[in-house]
Structure formats: structure tokens, C-alpha cells
Amino acid sequence: MVTLDPLQMETLRQPVYDISGVQVAKLRTPRNVLVPLLYKKRQTENRESVGIPFPPKTKGIFYYHLSPGYPPQAGELRFKKCESVERFHQGEDLQVDTGQPWSLSLLNVLQSSRKDAFLHELLVERGLVDRELVADLRRIFGGSRTKDAGHGLGFSRGGATLHDIDQPFVTDVNITGFTARLVTRQSIQMMTDIYVFWPFAGHGDSATSPPPFRGIYFWPCVSDRIGLILTRLFPSRTRPGPF
């Protein structure tokens, strides 16, 4: 892995990887730092965590991304599907089953002590992540850092990571509740086990099983509580019970 900077891919001749069917993509930096990257995990009936391989035709390049208008702590690693480095900017992001881009957040990287060398070599030293930002977030984490990214503050448990209280996010409403966290440079506020709806068990308009019901949520502050507004992605579906 030569660089994560989208503007330096061609100049530095970043290699293209074919990680189709690979459970753990094991990459190395120019200083020989090992960087293991997972596609995603699932829980078995025994509540054990099992890795899911990268899907077929996963060929391309890992890169660092910060969405326009988002604060610097919202940065993340993504994977751009492309046949060559010259076609990097024409590629499409690898997605997960929610239709969202696959990503490894800067917060996960920062909370994992095993990724310190990778963080400094390819993100901080290359100017993609500011040293002061790293110091600020480290102060927030305190003693919660672990060898494996994402445990102390719940980053491996799923749920939404928000950087503004008005930020929309996608979640599955076939469940009874969810976890969210609001992250700024000053604090991390956990909102766990939020029970706001019943599992959705409505029927579709055809004899076939309907797709999972998902919505985009907005969190406007209303006096001392949070209100939810659901934008339905499947208007033909039966409305879930409490809405």
C-alpha cells in the first residue's frame, strides 16, 4: 500500500488489488507495517463473530475519503473498484448490503493500538489527517483504546456514528432499536439501545419476499428529547405499526 491519497494514486503508482473472496486483506506499507482489513463480520447462533469474505469482483484500490461538508473526524478508508490506477477516478465504491460504501472509520483506526504505525505513516505523515485532530480524539478515548479496533466505545457493534445532531443516517427498521454515537472533537456521546419502533413485519405488493425495509433518519432537537422523522424508501410497503 503506497498511498491512500486519491490525488497521488497515479503519481506514486499505487498497485491495484484483487481481494475477491478474501476474508482478511493483508496489506503492507512501504515501511513493512502490516495492515489487516476485513469486509464485515456476522454473529453466529452461538454469538461468535465470524468474518465475511470480500465479495466477487472486488478489484481496486483502498483510499482515504472525507465527505464534503463533514468535519475532519468523519474521515474513513474506502475501496474504489477499478481495473487500473489510471481508472481510479472513474471507479465505484465497494458497497455493503445496506447500499452504503464499505468503510473503516478514522475513529476505528485511532482506537486500535495495532494500527498506530499505519495511522502515522500513511495518514498523518502524508497530511491526510492532522496531528492535532489525533491528539484531540485520543484525549476523548482516554483509556478505552484496545488492540482490536472498535470495542471500548462500541465502534464494532454497528449502529450509526454521527458528527452533527441534524445528520441523516441509514438504519434497518426490522429491529426494535439501535445504537448511535455523536462524535465531536470535544466528546463522544453514546445513545445505546434506543427503542423507538416495533420490528417491521408488513407485506409487499407481490408474492415474493419484499426487500429489507430501511429508512433515513433525521434528529432535530425538540426541547429535552430527540424526535424522529422517517423518510420511507419503499412507499409501496405497508406502513410499520407505530408510524
Spans with pLDDT under 50 lasting ≥5 residues?
Answer: 145-157, 196-243
Q: State mean pLDDT (0 to 100 scale).
A: 74
Rough shape? globular
Q: Helical region count?
A: 3
Percentage beta strand: 25-35%
What class do helices, strands and sheet pairing give? Answer: mainly beta
Report the helical percentage.
10-25%
Tell me the total number of β-strands: 17
Order of helices and strands: EEEEEEEEEHHHEEEEEEEE
Straight-line distance between termini: 48 Å
For the largest beta-sheet, the strand count, sense and barrel status come to: 5 strands, antiparallel
Instruction: Give the C-alpha Rg.
Output: 19 Å
Layout of SSEs?
Elements: E1 17-18, E2 24-28, E3 34-38, E4 40-43, E5 49-52, E6 59-65, E7 76-81, E8 92-93, E9 104-105, H1 106-111, H2 116-124, H3 131-141, E10 160-162, E11 169-172, E12 177-183, E13 188-195, E14 214-218, E15 221-222, E16 225-226, E17 229-232
Parallel strand pairs: 10-12
Antiparallel strand pairs: 1-6, 2-3, 4-5, 6-7, 7-8, 7-9, 11-14, 12-13, 14-17, 15-16
